[in-house]
Design a protein that fits this description.
The chain is of the alpha/beta class. It has four helices and five strands. Helix 3 links the parallel strand 3 and strand 4. 34% of the residues are buried.
Length: 122
Amino acid sequence: MILVVDNDASDRETIGKALEHLGFTVASCPSGDAAMRVVEAHGADLAGLVTTIALPGLANGWDVAGAFRARNPHGPIVYVFQEIFDEPCLTRTNLGVRKPYNAAHLAQSVKQLHLRAGELSA
């Protein structure tokens, strides 16, 4: 299951449909706080995370990603942002994507990161 976290319902739906088209099961959350609850309850079952950085609530995208990474060290994370940021996010299993984006390309990126994560955890 891929967790999609975005405060924009339209973006959550678009990303979710693109991921489902590639065969992924998707859960979505409108806030960092809701996402933290999902990660706490299902972290080991999550195959990846797509999250915006700026989210409503106390937890932001960095917080959600940290909680996800603690439970899934090699799981792929795609950070979606609107502004330039200083946090490092590009690794073999992380990717930063700037809005606006092409949802199909974003979903393909998740798939590629998912395959790389499998190589790392093997």
